[in-house]
Amino acid sequence: MQVIIIGLIQKQYNARHPYPYFPDFKLINFMIRHIVMWTIKETSQPREKLELLAELKSRLLQLKDEIPEIRDMKVNFNAISAPVKNYDIVLECEFSSWAHLETYQKHPAHVAVAEYVNNIRQNRAAIDYEY
Questions:
Q1: Less Cβ around it within 10 Å: N or C end of the chain?
Q2: How many CB atoms lie within 10 A of CB 88?
């Protein structure tokens, strides 16, 4: 908790002053969280949509083995008891740096999965943040 608070103070201080008050601030690392949610296009049979979701989850989870820059990855479906208007599936990834996120996004395996998703999705929402 102290590291986070010092990091926030350092960012605010650096915005106002050219010389850092905390000289060892560069040793503090922030993680990047990348979250993407999709709704899948409606199909004529509910089973087809479930199969598309299962295939998407499988392809996403394979990325963890193919792209070493991914520190952690979770893929989850919208809960059955949750509102139907919610997104269908969510991806949460953790990276050590913005450079690692960029490497992930340009990796051929990720590009292939993104092309697959673009063919089956209706909506997409994403957010990337430091913590």
A1: N
A2: 20
14-43 mean pLDDT: 74
CB 89 within 8 A of CB 113: no
pTM: 0.78
Per-residue pLDDT, 29: 73
* Domains along the chain with CATH numbers: 1-29 (no CATH), 31-130 (3.30.70.100)
Instruction: Give one DSSP letter per residue of the chain, joined into a string.
Output: -HHHHHHHHHHHHHHH-SS-SSTTGGG----EEEEEEEEEPP-SSHHHHHHHHHHHHHHHHHHHHH-TT--EEEEEEPPTTS-TTS-SEEEEEEESSHHHHHHHHHSHHHHHHHHHHHHHEEEEEEEEEE-
Q: What is the mean pLDDT of residues 117-123?
A: 98
Find the radius of gyration of the CA atoms of the chain: 19
As a whole number, the mean pLDDT across the chain is 87
Q: What is the pLDDT of residue 3?
A: 46
